[in-house]
Amino acid sequence: MIKLQLLLRDPARDRSDDPALCALLEAHGMHVTACGMATISAETSQAEAENVFGPIPNVRAGFASDVTSTPALAVPADLQHAISLITIAPRHTAAGQPT
Q1: With contact defined as beta carbons under 8 Å apart, do 30 and 43 qualify?
Q2: Domain locations in the chain?
Q3: Which residues of the chain have pLDDT under 70?
Q4: By Cβ atoms counted within 10 A, which residue in 26, 65, 84, 86 is the most buried?
């Protein structure tokens, strides 16, 4: 699974109770894993991601393996009213632990 971070256009609004947005994300093969005030975390399969975004570069174990060169993914037209940016989530590790 590929881990995604979606930046909301209106960060002051809590989207966790927005079933229409969640339904749109699910229609694009994205399973919402967490909602915050500014972002939504989601995951999708490699096949679904490539179906929506085209070839996905720099993916290792579902995360961005090279954050400095991972481009933003195209936001589908029907999500542009709510989402301003989609990226592959970087792997988060504690200091001193191998990635």
Answers
A1: yes
A2: 2-60+68-88
A3: 11-17, 57-71, 91-99
A4: 86
